[in-house]
Amino acid sequence: MDSKAIKIAANKVQVHYGDTHAIKDVDVEIEDKTVTAFIGPSGCGKSTFLRCLNRMNDTIDICRVQGDILLDGEDIYDKRVDPVQLRAKVGMVFQKPNPFPKSIYDNVAYGPRIHGLARNKAELDEIVEKSLRRGAIWDEVKDRLDAPGTGLSGGQQQRLCIARAVATEPEVLLMDEPCSALDPIATAQVEELIDDLRSRYSVVIVTHSMQQAARVSQKTAFFHLGNLVEYGETGQIFTNPEDPRTESYITGRIG
Amino acid sequence: MAISWLLLILLALAVIGYFTGRSRALSSAGGNVRELHSLPSYYGYNVALTALVPALGLLMIWLLVQPMIVNSTVSGLIPDQALPEGADRGLAMSEVRRVSDGLDGAVAAGAISQAQASNADADIEELTQTLKDAGQVLTQDITQPILVAAQKYRSMTTTGSVAMQVVVLSLALLGAAFAYIRTHKEFRARNVVEQGVLALLLLAASIAILTTVGIVLSMVFETMNFFQLHSWKDFFFGGTWAPNFRGGSELSILPLLWGTLYISLIALLVAVPIGLFAAIYLSEYASGATRSVAKPLLEILAGIPTIVYGLFALLTVGPALVSMFGDGGMLGVGWMASSNAVLTAGLVMGIMLIPFVSSLSDDIINAVPQSMRDGSLGLGATHSETVRSVILPAALPGIVGAILLAASRAIGETMIVVMAAGAIAKFSGNPFEAMTTITTRIVSQLTGDTDFASPETLVAFALGLTLFIITLGLNIFALYIVRKYREQYE
C-alpha cells in the first residue's frame, strides 16, 4: 500500500484524569483517506485518545492533556485554536446512537445551520440529501424526513448520526465503537459505509471487535494500559505482530 | 379503662406473643434453626401481628362507628318540641354531650353518685346547680328531655366502650392463640409475615386515596346543597359577585375566576423566565461549587411560609409599587391608588414560584442525556448553541409540565392574595387595581360567624370544588406531559 499524506500527527501525548495517568507517551501518525482502527482491552485509553483528537476531553473538568497533536501541521491545543471550530473539522460519531429529539431533516441540518454552510433552503435541502445518501440511509428515510430521528431503529439511528457528522463536511471522522450497540446486519451496513467514507475522509475508529478492525481498517494501533504498543498496517498487525502483547491480545490471551 | 390502657395491653400481648411464638417454633425444631422453614423471628412476628393487627383494626372501626350509632339513637330521643327556639338538632346534641360529660365529671369528682347520675327522675334544677358547683361547664339549664337523652347517651357510651374492650381483647387473644397453634417448623411463617406487611402497605396507600375521595365527596355534597339554594346559571354564567347575608345575593364565579387567572398570569410572567434562566445557569454553566451553594439558597425560597410572602407584599412590594406608580410617585403617573393590587399579588406570587419552576426545570434539564450534549458539541456547536438548539427543545415538554404545575400552585394560592390582592370582584384589565380571587372569597365567606345553611356560606364549597377541578385538571395534564417526555429516553 502506497503511503499517503499525514493528516494527524500526535507526539508524546499524555493524558491525566485527576490522578490517573490514562495515556502515556503516545506517538502516532494518522494518514489521510485511510481507515485507522484503535484496538485494545477495555480501559486501555483508546477512547480517551480518540477524544483528544477533537478536544472533546475539554468538556471534562479533571482531564489534562499534554504533548502535541498536529492537524495538517497545526497544533490543535494551541491557544489560538477554537475547539468549536476544530470539532467542525474533526467530526465524531459516538458509541450509542444519539440523534437529537428533532426531525430527521433537522438532525442532519443541525451542523450546516450552525456553521452557515447553506445560503438558502434549497442548498440546505441539497446538503441534507447528499449527507443522507453518504450515510447510506437516504432510501429508507426520504419519504419521512419530518419524522423524529428518535423513532428510527438502532442501526438507522447510527447511520443518521454518521450522516449528521458528514453534513458539516469534516476532514476527519472519529468513531467511538460505532457498532457496539448494533446487531450484525446494521453493523455490516455501517462497516460498508465506513469503507465508502474512506474515499473522502480520514476515518479513525475505536473498536472492540478485532474482526471489525481487520475488515474495515488499513492501519491498526494496539493500545495497552495507556501505551501505544504497536502501530502498523492492519494486515501486518493481525498476521505478524511484532510485540508479544499484541499477539496475546489478538489471539485472545489478554483482554 | 381508657383507650391508652387497652393499647398498652394489646402491645404487651404482642410482645408476649412474639417470644412465645418464637420459642414454640424453636422447640418444634428441637432447637435447630436450620430445621425451620423460616428464621425464628418470623414465627414471633407472625404471632405478634396476628394478635395485634385485627384487634387494632377492629378498635379503629369501633371508635369510628360507635359515636355514630349512639348519636343517631340519642338524637331520636329528643322530641321536636323540646328543641329550643331557632336551634337545630345538632345544637341540642352538643348540649346533650355537654351534660353527659358534666355527669361523668361530677361522678368522677364525687359530687354525685353513680345512681344519682343515672336517675331519670332527678330534680332538674338541683342537678343543674350540683353540676355547676362541681365546676362542670353547662351553657344553659338542663331540661328534662335533654337530661334523659344525656343519661341514655352516657349509658350507651359506657356499655359500648366496655363491649369494645372485651371484643377487642378477645379478638387479640384469639388471633394470638390461632397463630400460636399454627406455629410449627413446617409452617411458612416468612411468607405469611410478608403478606401481612404487604397488606399494611396497601392499607396505607388506600387511606391516602380514600381521604382524597372523602374530601371530594364532602365538597360535592355541600356544593349540591348550594345549587339547591342558588341557581347554577348565576354561579357559572352570571357577571356579578355581590354576597349579601340578608339574601338576594348574586354569586357568580366569573369575576373571581378572572381575578385568579389574571394574578396567576402575572405570577407566571415573573416566575417562568426567572426560574427557567436560573435553572439553565445552574444546570449548564455553574461550576460545582457555585451550584452546591446557589441551589440550596434558591430552594430556601420554597420553604418560606406563604403568609410571610403576604407580609412582604403588604409591607414592602405594595408600598414600593405605590411610590412608583401612585399619585405623586416617581413616575408621576398616578395609576395606583392602594398597595392592594393585582400587580402586587402577582409579583410576590411570582417570586414564590421561582424556586418551584427552577428546581423542576433543573431536574428536567439534568435528565437530558449527556450523549445529546456530546453529539452537539461533537458537531462543532458551542455550549450555548447546544443549550438553545438541543437541550431546551429536548427538555421542553418537561419544562411545560413544570410551568403547568406552577400555574396550578398559583391558582390555588391563598395567603398572598388574601393579604395583597384586595377584595373587589370585578372584570378589569388594569393591573394597578385591586381585584379578588376564588381563594380569597372562600376565606372571607367562611371566616367569622357562619351559618352553614345559607347560599352565601355554601358558595365557598362550590368555589372550592371548581378550584379543585381546575387545578386537578392542570396537574393531570402536566403529569401526562412530563411522563410522555420521560418515555423518550428510557
From TrEMBL, chain A:
Any one GO molecular function term: ATP hydrolysis activity
Record flagged with keyword Transport: yes
Record protein name field: Phosphate import ATP-binding protein PstB
UniProt domain ABC transporter: residue ranges: 8-250
Pfam families xref list: ABC_tran
Database matches in Gene3D superfamilies: P-loop containing nucleotide triphosphate hydrolases
Origin species: Ruegeria meonggei
Keyword Nucleotide-binding: yes
Alphabetical list of PANTHER family matching this protein: ABC TRANSPORTER I FAMILY MEMBER 17 (PTHR43423)
Name of the encoding gene: pstB
A single BP term in Gene Ontology: phosphate ion transmembrane transport
Database matches in SMART domains: AAA
Enzyme Commission number, as recorded: 3.6.3.27
Keyword annotations of the record: ATP-binding, Hydrolase, Nucleotide-binding, Phosphate transport, Transport
One of the record's GO cellular component terms: membrane
PROSITE patterns reported in the protein's UniProt record: ABC_TRANSPORTER_1, ABC_TRANSPORTER_2
Automatic annotation (TrEMBL), chain B:
The protein, known as: Phosphate transport system permease protein
InterPro entries: MetI-like, MetI-like_sf, Phosphate_PstC, PstC_N
Cellular-component GO terms for this entry: plasma membrane
GO biological process: phosphate ion transport
Domain of life: Bacteria
Key words, A-Z: Cell inner membrane, Cell membrane, Membrane, Phosphate transport, Transmembrane, Transmembrane helix, Transport
Main location: membrane
Boundaries of every ABC transmembrane type-1 domain copy: 257-478
Any one Gene Ontology molecular-function term assigned to this protein's record: phosphate transmembrane transporter activity
Residues that span the membrane, as ranges: 43-65, 162-181, 196-221, 256-280, 300-322, 334-357, 458-482
Membrane topology: Multi-pass membrane protein
Gene this protein is translated from: pstC
Source organism of the structure: Ruegeria meonggei
Family per similarity comment: Belongs to the binding-protein-dependent transport system permease family. CysTW subfamily.
Keyword Nucleotidyltransferase tagged: no
Protein's job: Part of the binding-protein-dependent transport system for phosphate; probably responsible for the translocation of the substrate across the membrane.
Record localization: Cell inner membrane; Cell membrane
One Pfam short name: BPD_transp_1
